[in-house]
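Justification of resources, computational component.

The compute hours requested in this renewal are based largely on the per-chain cost of generating structure records like the one below. Each record pairs the submitted sequence with a full structure-token output. That output is archived, and it is also reused by downstream analysis tasks.
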Amino acid sequence: MSGGRCRTLLAVLSLPVLALGSGCAGEISSQERTLFRRTSLVRPGSSRDFENRYRSTLRLFVAEKAAQEQGSSGECSGVLIAPRAVLTAGHCVCIVRKLSVSEREALGKEAIAGMARRGDVVSRAESLRGQRLDAVLDSSRCASSAKVRTIIYEPRVPGEAEGSRQVTYSGTVRPHPRLELLYDDEGSVVWSSADLAVIHLDMPVKDFPVVERTTAEARVGEPIVMAGYGPGEPLGLAGERHSGENQVSWLRTLDSGSVEFVVAQQRMPTGHVAAHLDAGDSGGGCWRTGSDGNLVLIGIAGGNAKNGRGESLSVFTSIYSHEEWLSQQLAEP
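The structure output for this chain reads:
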């Protein structure tokens, strides 16, 4: 998709571009807080998941074509968190709309009247101060249904093409009630909170692992693995599940109660280049390895960006900060 405004379904052929405001770690300069459009994916440094280690990461398709932006496939990723529940990014299933004049005026007044930062907490009002707001994505305009596809790669046989077993499921979309992404007049996200949605499947996914969710917040410096269906490397095939490594660079605690964590362009301790998000990866999982060696889900891929030096950043929504909402979703029929 072109580099114009992210409209209708952001899906991830146009990952949301963030202008990170106050509340980043102290070493982040003002230049680094200005992020620009387009970047990279779980690449470089990614690999296809032929061992099915991240098979709980599913491919997501928005079923309502009328809601999709022209030229977009409406594809994202998602994570199976229960036999009938898939967690994904809210911007994958909801639609951007223009702010009315009265809404822009109200947000402008809120920004002027808002309190300054309280410690390390990022204030919504402070983030909006001085911004020319133009559009919003929230839970008021979302697709009612979506489809997900499980993919199991078959063992590779020398001389034969790789095969896979795939099953498609349909479900009902339930966005987070506090989902909110606010855009400036250049199409950049200046505020993002609770970028999550759950898809309640009509039928349970059978014989498939359900992920373990974290019981602790992400930590600066900890290694993470991201997985999704973007093009990846080395072959650049969209729709193949890829994984890649990075490590948490800083956390953003928002006054809405949501927490985001950011991974920067860097090299891992092993010396290889860290991976990043790209088209198709939004809604995919971000994982840590537990003390028992099992994978633990800690975040959902939200979007990517570049800092003032042109370096890649990837942003994730912490699921620990939304555990109460997730528990409620899993308790509902």
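The mean pLDDT is 79. The CA atoms of residues 262 and 315 lie 5 Å apart.
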